[in-house]
Amino acid sequence: MKRIFTSGVFLLFGLALSGAAPGASPRELVARAVQAMGGEAALERIRTLAIHGEDVQWEIESSYEPGARAKPRQGAESRFFVQRDLVSGAARIDWERRVVRTPKPLLFNYSEILAGGIGYVSGVDSASRTHASRMSDPPGHPMSGARAAATLRELARQSPRLLLEMQANPKSLKALAPQNAGARRLPAVQYDVRDWSFIVLFDPETGLPARIRTRDADPIQGDSNYDLALDDWREVGGARLAHALTYKLNERDMVAIRYQQVALNPALDPALFEIPIFARALAVRAAMGAGVPYQWIIRRGYWGNLMDSDAVAWDASARPEPELVDIAPGVSLSQGVSHNSMVVEMDRYLVVLDAPIGEAFSEWMIRASKKRYPGKPIRYLMLTHHHWDHANGARTYVAEGATVIVGQGNKEHFARVFSAPATIANDRLQRNPRKANIIEVTGKHVLKDRRRSVEIYLIESQHSIGTLIAYVPDARLGFVTDIWSTNAPLGAKPTPGQMELVAGVKKWGIRPERFAHGHGSPAPFAPLLELAGG
After folding, report:
1. Which of 28, 102, 132, 371 has the greatest number of beta carbons closer than 10 A?
2. Based on the number of CB atoms within 10 Å of its own CB, is 370 exposed (0-12), middle (13-18) or buried (19 or more)?
3. Parallel, antiparallel, or unpaired for β 403-407 and 438-441?
C-alpha cells in the first residue's frame, strides 16, 4: 500500500516541479520537498548518521537591557559529534561545551544517550553538577522526563527523514495558511506526530523545507514561534542535507549550528547507545504533553545551569517540596532548588523578592508563604532584574494580585510580559486576566507599615539595567541576586559584581550584616566588605 500511495503522490508532484503551485495541498508540498532533498529512495537509504559540527548559543532574555532590540548575551559555544540510528531512534551526542557567560569560561565534556524512550547523561554537563560529580566515578545521571522529551523533539526536528515520514503519514498532515518567516510569507504544512506539532515552511522556489517550527510557551514572551531555519543545502550520498541550522525564537537567533562533516550509513556499535543498568532502573520515560518546559530545558542546558529535574524545572508537585527557611524574624528564604525567592512579613501583608524558574515554583512559593504567615496576602513582588531565570514566574504573582516593583528601564518590558497571550502554557494569568500594577524604582523606594520597612534601592551594575537590591533594616538583612551569589565561595579578590554591590551599599548608606541571595544561602557581608577594601 505504501508504494501505491507514493506513486500517486508523484503524479501530483509533477504539478509543482517548477515552483510551488498556488493552493498546493499539504501532500503536494511535502512530496515536492522530498524530491528536492534527493527523492524518496535516497532518503530511505539513510539508516544511520554521523555528524561533526559546531554551534554558538545566545540567551536573549539575559541581555543587559530587556526587549527585542537588546543585544543578546552569548551563553556557550560547542563542538559536537552526533551518531544516530534512525531506524531504532537511538542517538548519542558527544559534547565539548565552553560556557562563556561567566568571567572564567566553564568547560564541560559529556554525552547524551537516548534509547528506548529514556535518556542518560555520561559526564558533567552543568555547573550545578560539578560538585556532585566528584562524589561518583564515573559521573553521570539519568535524564529527567522533560529533558528526554526536549532532546527527542529536537532530534526529530533535525532528522533528514522527517519529510519522508510526513509523506508516509498523510493523515497527520494539516493544511495551513502561509506563515511569516522574517520578511517572507511561506507555504506551510502542520505535521502532528506523538504529542508534537511541527509546522514546516517551504521555500517556494526550491521546494526545500525552509523552517521547521513549533509553537512554544515562553514565560517572558508568551506564545512563541520556535523555528529551526535550514540553509546551506549540500549533497551527501545522493541526498541533500542542510549544513547550516539556526534556531530562532520569534525571529531572534538563539543557536547557530554548522555541520562540518556528515557521514551517511556508518556502522554504529550498539554499545554506543547502552544506558547503565542503574540508570535504566532510575530513568523515567520521556515526558509528553503541553506541560513540558521546552524553552527552559534547551536554553538552561546551553547556559550550563540545568539541574535536569522534572521537579525543579517542571512540576513542583512531583518531588519533595523545597524548604522555606526562616532566616530572621518574619523573613524566610526558599532553599533546595537552583534559584531563591525571599518573603518578608509586614503587619498586614507579605512582600516577595524575585520570581524565578517558572509558574510551578511561584505557585509553591505562594502556598508556602501563606502557610508560614497565614491570613496575609502577597501585596508586592520585587524583581531584582529582568533576566528570565529570576522573572519567569512573575505572571503568577500578578494573577495573585501583587503589585510588581522593577528597576528603572524595566517597566515597559514587564508591561509586555504581563499582557502577552499565554494560551500554550495556559498559566494562571491567562486563565484569570488581571491588569498589572507596576512600580518603577528610579532611586529609592520604601514599603513601610507599623511592623517594619522594606527598602529597595537602584544600583549601578553591568549585569543588567535597573538592578535592584532590598534591605530589611530591623533585621539588618539585604537581598541580592546574581552580582553576588553564595553558591560560589569568595575568591582572592572581589568580582566586578561584588564590587558593584559594595558600591551600592556605600552609596545608599545602609548597614547590612548579612545578605540573602538569589542563588545560595545567606552570608555575612563583612568578609566581602573587607575583601573589597572596606
Report:
1. 28
2. middle
3. parallel
Measured between alpha carbons, how far is 488 from 51 in angstroms, rounded to an integer? 36
Distances from the Cα of 210 to the Cα of 28, 108, 203, 221, angstroms:
16, 32, 5, 24
Query: How far is the first Cα of the chain from the last one, in angstroms, to the nearest whole number?
Result: 81
Q: Which three cell numbers stand for residue 79?
A: 563542538
pLDDT at 315 over 60: no
Query: Please, which residues have CB within 8 angstroms of residue 277's CB and are 6 or more apart in sequence?
Result: none
- Specify the residue for cell string 524583581: 383
Name residue, grid cell 501532500: 27
Bridge partners (DSSP) of residue 49 are: 84, 264
What are the cell numbers at 106?
Answer: 566553564
Biggest CA pair distance of the chain: 82
The residues pairing with 239 across neighbouring beta strands, listed in sequence order, are 236
- Entry field: residues in the chain: 534
Q: Give me the percent of the chain exceeding a pLDDT of 90.
A: 82
Over residues 189-236, the pLDDT tens digits come to: 999 998 899 999 999 999 999 999 999 999 999 999 999 999 999 999
Distance CA 478, CA 511 (A): 9
Q: How far is CA 455 from CA 441, 452, 499, 511, in A?
A: 11, 10, 20, 12
